[in-house]
Every structure is written in C-alpha cells, then in structure tokens.
Amino acid sequence: MTSMVDELPSDVRLTLVTSDRDLGCREPYAGLSGVWTTRSRSRVFYLDRRSPRHWLRIWRAQRSEGPFDLLYVNSVWQPTFSLLPVLAAILGLVAAKRILIAPRGEFSPGALGIRSRKKRLFLALWRRLLGRRDVLWHATNDREAAHIRALVPGARIVLRANQTLLPVDPAPPVEHEDARLRLVFISRITPMKNLDLVLRALRSVTRPLSLDIFGPVDDPSYWRECQRLCDELPATVTVRYRGPVPPAEVRATFSRYDAFVLPTRGENFGHAIAESLSASCPVVCSAETPWTDVLEGGGGVVLPAISAAELSRVIERMAADDVAGRHARRVAAGEAYRAWRAGQETHSVIDLVRADAFADVTGPPAQGRAVHASSGTTAVRERS
What is the four-CA torsion angle of 85, 88, 92, 93, rounded to 10 degrees? Predict the structure, then answer.
C-alpha cells in the first residue's frame, strides 16, 4: 500500500481508509484512530470498524468527495474492506464508476482449497455481480489471470506486477560464524503460509539448526497445531516464536539468517520474498509464486513438491553447508535480487486502468475519477 500511495500518477488523488491497528493487535496506532491524515496527495483515515462514529465520518467524506473513478479492493473475501465497499458501489451507495478487484492470490488452487465449501458458495452467489462490465480485475501475472478467468469467465483483467519501494541494490550479506543453520519464517501465521509443513519437515532433519518465527497469529487454532508440532521436534532443532516484526525492521531481520522458508500454498506476488532477497537472504519456497525463475537463477530453492519430505531434504542439504557455502548462497541471492529489481516496470496499475489496457479487452481511454479498496484498507482514488 505504501508503494501505491507514494507512486501515484501526478494527476491522481487518493482517499484511503485503513484499519487503525496492525493485524492481530488490540491497541490502535497512537493518536491515529478516527483521524484523517495527509500523505503526499492522499488523504488517509484510520478506522475502528466497531465504531459507528468512524463509519459516519467515512460516509460523509465519500458523499462530499465523490463521485469517484475507481473503487480498488485488494481482496475478494475480506468483509469490511472488500465485500462491504464493493456491495455499496454496486448498490449505488458509494458513487464509483468502476470497481477494480485484486484477489492477491486468493483464486489460486491452494488458496481455494482452504475453507473451499464457503468460498465456492460465495462465488456461486456473487459470480454474476463480479462479472459485471464495470467490475475489473487486477492480476499480477499470467497465472493469476488464468485463475481469475477460470472462476469469472469473461473477466476484464488488468495485468500488472506489484510495485515495490525496495532499493535497487541488495544489502551486502552479513558475515556469520554460527555453525548451525539459521532459518527464519516471517509471515502471517495462517494455513495459507504453511508453517505447519516447515515444522513437520524439521522432524526429519538430523543436523543442528534453529528456526525463528515472526508474524501475527491470524488463525489461533492453526497456531495451536503449530505449537503442538514444535513440542515434537528433536533436541537438535531450536524453534522460537518472536512475535510480529515492525515493517521497518523486516529487511534487517532477514539479514541475520541463512534462509527464509515459506512453502506457501500460493502468492500472487510475495512481498516478503522480495524483502528477503533484498537483504541477501535466500528463499526456500513452493512453486506457487511468481518467483520461480528468480530463485532458480540463484535466489534460493524452489520445492519440486509441497511436501514435508521434499522440504526436509532441501533443509538437510543447506544444513550440511559450511560457513563459506552459506555465505555464497547469500551473495547469490543478493545478485538474483539485483537482476530482478533492474527489470521492474514503472507504470502503475492506475495508469493501465485509465488507458483501458486490459489483458483481453481494448477500448478508448477511461474518463472520470476512480476509487480503490483493499484487504485491510479501503482507498478512493480521484483525478484532479
């Protein structure tokens, strides 16, 4: 979201509504709950979703500032920041000429396999609405575009990779003398990210190693299962839960480890993967991400199958490396990141929407103003 706010086209203004607290936190940001702030050409409101007074402020703001060109949401399933604004726009309660939905990997087979019955029922009820002419879709790669079309035939798709504000050059790899392999997991603790598979794999690794887990607990029952698996690990494996890590400290945290392990069920982009590589930390993950070519080009390891046995074999090989071998892996990860970063696009998804640059539909340039909503945030984009 930060990259979207900071890299808006010069003739676009954004009104953004976001949560007043981090995921999993009970306390709101100090001094920001219920407050409008300004960043560049953007207005930002920090919402306590349980506060009727906050909702009234948002309602008044959108009534005074609309109509908008585009409502942009970063999730299909999120109730407050996706379903509610999309439904409001369709019913005319929010004046938006177009709706842009970014599933963020939620239509991948792995993601649909989690709570699949509820998701299929939702799609059966909403498919006609989601296939409307004024509903557009943001895919970040060809595979995600295919996933969208499989569920929403005839979808109008804008194909644009995610933007990043990460530096062009990777951080130099830090010298480590620890003989044990140091692994890290930084992500939301949810079945989608597959932390339990990492823990199952570690049961079969014979060499000493450590795993530090960072991230908010998004699914408490799933976290209890992961804790149970931690109790079953051999004495040669040390696992520590470190809690959430502030965004500004993520890259520095990655730099302290030999590898980032993320056997995810599916990512439409994977910001954490980019952050890890930018810190010269190799990545071990599934093939269900857009990063396969980068990782196979030196950034890390792509699992041939999402299984505990395959992951265990990869970790065992990495644990067998000496200090020099692990340092060489970090150097290679940094260089793979440098090559990827140099090839990043500069046009924003908003530019493409305004030009009607769809993957399967062409037409005259879009006119008017726009609205954007995302998972955890709701934003309104307005051309000046």
Answer: -100
